[in-house]
Amino acid sequence: MKKITIAIDGYSSTGKSTLAKQLAKHLGYVYVDTGAMYRAVTFFAMQHHYVSENHLDKNKLIESLPDLHLHFEFNPDLGFAEMFLNGKNVETEIRTLEVSRLVSKIAEISEVRSKLVEQQQQMGKHKAIVMDGRDIGTVVFPNAELKIFMTASPETRAQRRFDELVDKGQHVTYQDVLQNVMERDYIDTHREDSPLVKAADAIEVDNSAMTRKQQFQLVLSLVDEKVIA
After folding, report:
1. Is 18 annotated as a binding residue?
2. Rounded to whole angstroms, how far apart are CA atoms 43 and 57?
3. What pLDDT, on the 0 to 100 scale, is given for residue 74?
4. Is 51 exposed, middle or buried (0-12, 13-18, 19+ CB in 10 A)?
5. What is the pLDDT of residues 58-69, one digit of tens each?
6. What confidence tier does 229 reach under pLDDT thresholds 50, 70, 90?
7. How far apart are the first and last CA of the chain?
8. Strand order in 146-151's β-sheet?
9. Which NCBIfam families does the entry mention (predicted)?
């Protein structure tokens, strides 16, 4: 069966990672969560006091990039790969609202994007890969056989994110999460380097009223079309 590259882009909290994990597991493909990579760089910058709500030391972060090493390790108990930063598992730390508030600032930095895009392209050299993010179909894999662009209303996405954070025991308000979602949308779509845009050949999936199962079945049918073609 033909192996393809599947690029999933879209707004924050549209369930890109959930869908990508489902597809990778079903197809036996490699899954790469590029959002986790940007979150890990953000967490690194926070640890070193390069970034905060009102501060960004861009030059210091750029100078530190050679000292920043990212890799994924598959966790068989969880069924997906976790993010490691300089040898330490940071999967829990990178999923906080604090990191969410700052990640778009870090993702705007061209030198950060360049470093991560190079790594992502290396990971996808042999196809049979599902990758999700903001610029996968436009920058990382412009020749991907299947490109999906995911969207949903800000309110729907905020509710999903709020429920997820509360389930993890984090103390947040829905209003704070909604504000974060809308701020990230603005930053992601207005940054100079690789803004979030739908690739011309991407298929848009609005999952505002879809269940995860319905979404999975829809996209799997699109994969089948490409694999059989």
Report:
1. yes
2. 14
3. 82
4. buried
5. 999 999 999 999
6. low
7. 10
8. 30-33, 129-133, 5-10, 146-151, 203-206
9. cmk
Report whether 208 belongs to an annotated binding site. Answer: no
31 is in an annotated binding site: no
Alpha-helical regions (H) of the chain: 16-27, 34-47, 58-64, 97-107, 110-123, 154-167, 174-190, 212-228
152-209 tens-digit pLDDT: 999 999 999 999 999 999 999 999 999 999 999 999 999 999 999 999 999 999 999 9
176 token code pair = 């704070």
Is the Cβ–Cβ distance between 165 and 157 less than 8 Å?
A: no
Q: Consult the annotation and say whether 17 binds a ligand.
A: yes
> 3-state secondary structure string, 29-80?
CEEEEHHHHHHHHHHHHHHCCCEECCEECHHHHHHHHHHCCEEEEEECCCCE
Q: Is 15 annotated as a binding residue?
A: yes
Q: What is the residue whose two structure tokens read 């590029």?
A: 34
The answer to whether 13 is annotated as binding is yes
Torsion over CA: 170, 171, 175, 176 (sign): negative
Spatial contact of 38 and 17, defined as CB atoms under 8 Å apart:
no
Report the C-alpha gap between 190 and 176 in whole angstroms: 21
